[in-house]
Amino acid sequence: MKSSPKPRRRKRNLGHLSIGLFAFCATLLAVAPASLLIPAIKHNAPNLSFSTIEGSVWSAQIKHLTVENIGFGNVAIQFSFSSLLHGEVAYFITVDDEALDSTLIAKRTIPGNIVLQTGSLEIGPSIVSRMALLGVRLDGTINISDAQIVLRDNECRQSTGYVETNILRAPAAQFGVSAPELTGNIICRDGKLGVELAGGEQSFGNVSIDLFSHTPQHMVLKAVLSLNDKTLEDALKLSGFEENGNAIQIEQIVGL
């Protein structure tokens, strides 16, 4: 007796149905509007606001993005399908504004790491000026190059990156001196993300600055100065600096 072809036909039909269902779901996701991301954004980033989100969940543009009252203009987000081949989920994030100018790669790996990478990032005066030293708002820009930051469980696990900045020009101008350019690196220390900077200027002296994350809206700033101007050194002591050998230093929490 020959076996009935019906079971084979059912399996074949089931296979066709599965392929068709997968294709339908893939197509649905490909054209799914980016507005579907809004609930997740509102839940995970309540301090973030924007006017609209256009595009799809794979390629979106956020219009008039604002974080903590800092405007970032329009932000483009592009999903990297090739990242799936490496067991990662990655997005290209492009910001072209006075506050922030960069293309970032943000990805999440299977072990649960969040990795941020950029070849070049400029942090503008509108962000820098939210920090102050001795009651004087900082000014200038911060330029970061060849950076990679690895985060896990809300802690900084690994980092690289070169930093250049002129953020001391406003406080130095208050005392009638020229501020040195500062250079340094992005580092992780005790799970905190930060930068270590140093520089010198002939008429000013030498300065080193550590700036590390403290809370989501605050950072710890530590400055150590070896000054050539005794009058300026005495004035800074009156402003809160303390002696540290042949130098003076201050450590304070600054808001963002």
Task: Report on the architecture of this protein.
The protein has a 15-stranded antiparallel sheet that branches. A two-stranded antiparallel sheet has the order 8-9. With 256 residues, the chain is α+β, with helices and mostly antiparallel strands. The longest helix is centred in the N-terminal third of the chain and has 26 residues, at 6-31. The protein has 5 helices and 17 strands. 20% of the residues lie in helices and 52% in strands.
The proportion of residues forming helix, as a percent range, comes to 10-25%
User: What is the terminal-to-terminal distance?
Assistant: 82 Å
Task: Work out the oligomeric state of the chains in this entry.
Answer: single chain
Strand tally is 17
Largest sheet: 15 strands, antiparallel
Number of helices: 5
The class by helix and strand makeup works out as alpha+beta
Overall geometry comes to elongated
Mean pLDDT: 79
The H/E string reads: HHEEEEEEEHEEEEHEEEEHEE
Residue fraction in strands: over 45%
